[in-house]
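ugh finaly. both done.
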Amino acid sequence: MSWDMFKSAPPTVQVRIESNPPGADATTSLGPGCKTLCSVSVPAPEAPFTVAFALPKYQPASVPVNVIKNPGDFTTPAAVATDPNPVFAELQPATPPKPIRKPHRPRKPKPAAAAPAAAPTEAATAAGSPFPDPNAGRR
């Protein structure tokens, strides 16, 4: 005969799971999971656990969850809570892959029509300008 039948079932804790945007697949490191906005019942673990969020076109996120146990006494039963509750994740959009740039063909040079004119002299340039020569007084 086993004494296991006298042991009480391990306490469970209800964990509310939310995300922005809603509809993400949330999975606890303890096993249970759901699509957000939802609530899951997990066996109260001895150590913290994580909730992983995944949604197409968004970066995955993971949120650590701490387990708080209140042992209780003769007048109050033992209680188990989680922090945070609800577990919330703000999912960031995945950056789209950079578009692949196609190499451009080099342009064909234009045929030379005529030889460029000889460079005008400095005096001719200043004389043809409607503006006064700024260096005229410095010479």
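ok and the 2nd:
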Amino acid sequence: MNPKNMVLSSRVVESLAFILLWLVLHSSFCHGVQSDIDCLKSIKDSLEDQFNYLNSSWNFNNNTEGFICKFTGVECWHPDESKVLNIKLADMGLKGQFPIGIQNCTSLTGLDLSNNKFYGSIPENISRMIPFVTTLDLSSNNFSGSIPKLLSNCTYLNVLKLDHNRFTGQIPLELGQLSRIKEFSAANNLLTGQVPKFQFAITAQSYANNPGLCGEILDPCEETPKKNRTVIIVASAVGGVTFAALAVGVALAFFFRRVAVRKKEDDPEGNKWARSLKGTKAIKAS
């Protein structure tokens, strides 16, 4: 092949490869931008906005690049790029459940819903919804139910605030695996049981006003000694067997008594006739 033709063919291939790569990246970018717009639309539609913070600012009729970055409470990675970095909706009087549509903000690193009227439980798969979040503030709401164990999969978390809600059950011990955590609070809930062992210094104030938290920097948890637990298990087993034996004995006694009564009813004179007959035969034989 002519060297000039080879060079030309090589340049054509390189050009086509560049165009293909550009198309792939552009497609991904457009999809990302649209998903973030859908994210915010879903959040707005799912919440009661009694003070019109969102209704007055979140206008989706504008299609210019980066228009969502001017929304109240929204911060973007770049002012001219509709890619959400943080959502800060604190103190807005918003009411509703945890916004599921948040999962469409695929590059979100911060979420602040504090001091509102959110209620219900936190989704179990929250770590899949906001995998890159570094700050999560859900404090001062009406969230309830248990704290999801899978929060421990949000490995970039630096700040986790869950205080002043109505969470119940135990704080997942798995949260102690969050190596980047620097601030944690679960005070003023309805939590009980052993608290996690974090890798940073945490104060008792982070657990204040819960009915039954214990362990680590709090009072020791009351545990039944292993020996006592064994005794209790054995005693329970023996008690169960004894009760079963007594039940069987009572049942058998009742059964035989019923059989005896029935026989007596069938032969009210008992065996007197048989004894009389035997006596008569005895007289004849003599």
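summary for the 2nd one i guess: The chain is about 35% helix and 20% strand.
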